[in-house]
Design brief:
The structure holds two protein chains of two kinds. Chain A has eleven helices and two strands; from the N terminus they run αααααααααββαα. Chain A is mainly α. By secondary structure, chain B is an alpha/beta fold. In chain B, the strands form four sheets. Chain B has an eight-stranded mixed beta sheet with strand order 4-5-9-10-11-13-14-18. Chain B has a five-stranded mixed beta sheet with strand order 2-1-3-8-6. At the A-B interface, helix 5 and helix 9 of A face helix 13 and helix 14 of B.
Chain lengths: 189, 363
């Protein structure tokens, strides 16, 4: 956690009680509970408020705590400041069901944690979608761009279908080659 | 001696060894020395809050019970390997880089071990040399330890350099992040010793490479050993992605190439930061405030956290292009990356690993 977080007072008794209670209900592992309680008071309280409001599930709590703590280190900010960013506040205070907003909240925290990855992945996804392969064929991008491998998935029942796909892929060769190049970092990242 | 020690433990069986005598003579008087029946017991975690960190300050002079020479532990069929051979003369390191793999690799025996029977390694090397007289091998001591960090205390380089200087098909690589080159400047390597430095931009050095020499000091030390007849190499490894990294790595390469002509650099390796989940957890626990551990790293197919691929490749290309433009004769290689990544960065598929190893050993 950032040095700011370390010197600031930690959660007050009432907030701590609520955090412990939620942690018990969600079976939060002890290191993550410690991590939460170790935040400065405004940060732990704000995260509690969001966790309750959006009814964050265990996996979401763990993921959000990890990502927020890493963003805090990188940006040398406290978690409360990150959670008060307009893009986050809009989701927390916006319309929609709690599970839907919880999902959006995690996605937004992920976007803050991995801003360049998010941009690169969005660009590649947009290009891949524009290729418009026929039904039964699909381009599968590597998870989180963790590798340079593009998977081309074909579902066929007959040789004729296979030949049709191969011919269609040939026609899209240049566009697919562009995706392969993008996975190798050919564009601005 | 540049680095601090809390204590030195000497295994009874090593008491009369040349290494123990040299260390005892060179050790500052305030550092306590104790004799123990089995050095392994002194090397295990000590129960402190940071046993790995404590182990770095506890030197254990002991016999090595297993072979000294082995293949590089990073080698894997997944990766195109450089054929580097590891000579384990010591284990652990007095510097404390936040990203260091030793935090996981030697977590169970973190004491700084120096092996008193290191002369046995010469027998292993001679057997290797005689078994394959037509081949060349690059052998390094800087995998489980920094090759030079305690050289003023152990004097190991004074034995290693003449040994390798006398063998045509063996090249010694001393890999370091220090400026401990005093003993090197007094020896004649006869062209068969390479000294290599891991290089990082100032931002990474300041944030992550605790107790290491600064990048400019490392470059100056490299220049000095080059002038003394050594071959030199540089490892940009780990390359860390942080805001401004492309600019910083390019400037680092420029600073290096301003001091040392590209044509006189024997090897350059590039490697992205890679951490197993266990290593990442250990590193974050020990260095919770280091932003370099919070880059855009994702879980890669090999089970390690790595900078997501397009960004990692962009950083590799930035450096590779710098060396190419400067007229480097050496072909940079990538550490722990698959063949497809080599091809994407350098535009050509790497030759067979054996051929790469041969070329690097003679570089």
């Amino acid at each position: 956690m950032s040095s700011n977080a370390k010197t600031a007072p930690t959660a007050d008794a009432s907030v701590e009680h609520q955090i412990r209670s939620l942690a018990e209900k969600r079976h939060l592992p002890a290191p993550h509970l410690e991590q939460w309680l170790g935040l400065d008071a405004p940060s732990s309280a704000r995260f509690l408020e969001i966790a309750q409001k959006l009814r964050l599930r265990t996996g979401q709590l763990l993921g959000a705590l990890d990502m927020l703590s890493e963003i805090a280190v990188r940006e040398r900010a406290d978690v409360a400041a990150i959670l008060s960013k307009p893009s986050v506040a809009r989701i927390v205070d916006g319309a929609g069901s709690a599970p839907e907003r919880a999902h959006q909240f995690i996605e937004e925290v992920r976007a803050l944690r991995y801003p360049r990855l998010r941009n690169a992945a969005d660009r590649i996804r947009t290009e891949a979608a524009a290729i418009r392969l026929s039904r039964g064929a699909r381009l599968v991008l590597p998870k989180e761009l963790g590798s340079d491998e593009l998977t081309i998935e074909l579902k066929v029942r007959t040789v004729a279908e296979l030949e049709k796909f191969i011919s269609a892929l040939g026609e899209k060769r240049a566009a697919i080659a562009r995706i392969i190049a993008m996975l190798g970092g050919s564009d601005d990242v | 001696m540049t680095f601090e020690l809390d204590a030195v433990f000497i295994e009874e069986g090593s008491r009369g060894s040349a290494l123990a005598s040299r260390i005892a003579r060179a050790l500052p008087p305030e550092i306590p020395v104790a004799f123990v029946p089995d050095g392994r017991a002194a090397a295990i975690p000590d129960g402190s809050a940071d046993p790995f960190g404590a182990g770095k300050r506890r030197m254990v002079v002991m016999r090595r019970r297993t072979p000294f020479l082995s293949g590089c532990p990073a080698a894997s069929p997944r990766f195109v390997c450089c054929g580097y051979l590891v000579l384990a003369l010591a284990s652990n390191c007095p510097m404390d880089c936040s990203y260091c793999f030793l935090q996981e690799y030697v977590a169970d025996n973190p004491g700084f071990q120096v092996f008193s029977n290191y002369a046995d390694a010469f027998g292993e090397l001679d057997r290797l040399s005689h078994a394959s007289p037509g081949r060349h091998f690059r052998v390094g001591t800087g995998d489980l330890a920094d090759s030079l960090a305690f050289d003023s205390l152990t004097g190991l380089s004074s034995d290693l350099i003449p040994f390798f200087a006398a063998r045509e098909n063996l090249t010694l690589e001393l890999k370091t992040k220090t400026c401990e080159i005093g003993n090197l400047l007094r020896a004649d390597p006869r062209g068969r010793v390479m000294v290599s430095w891991t290089l990082s931009p100032d931002a990474v050095f300041r944030s992550s490479e605790h107790r290491a020499a600064s990048p400019s000091e490392r470059i100056a030390a490299a220049r000095a050993v080059l002038d003394a007849g050594y071959r030199i190499g540089f490892h940009f490894d780990p390359i860390i992605s942080y805001p401004g990294a492309e600019r910083d790595y390019a400037e680092l390469a420029d600073a290096l190439l301003d001091s040392i002509p590209a044509a006189r650099i024997s090897i350059v390796s590039l490697g992205g930061l890679r951490m197993t989940p266990a290593l990442k957890a250990a590193a974050r626990r020990r260095f919770p405030d280091d932003p370099m551990l919070c880059g855009e790293d994702v879980l890669a197919p090999d089970g390690r956290y790595r900078t997501f691929t397009p960004l990692r490749l962009k950083l590799y290309r930035t450096l590779a292009e710098r060396f190419e433009r400067a007229g480097a004769k050496c072909f940079p290689y990538l550490c722990m990356e698959p063949a497809s990544i080599h091809e994407r960065v350098f535009g050509v598929a790497l030759r067979r690993p054996a051929a790469t190893a041969e070329r690097l050993a003679q570089a």
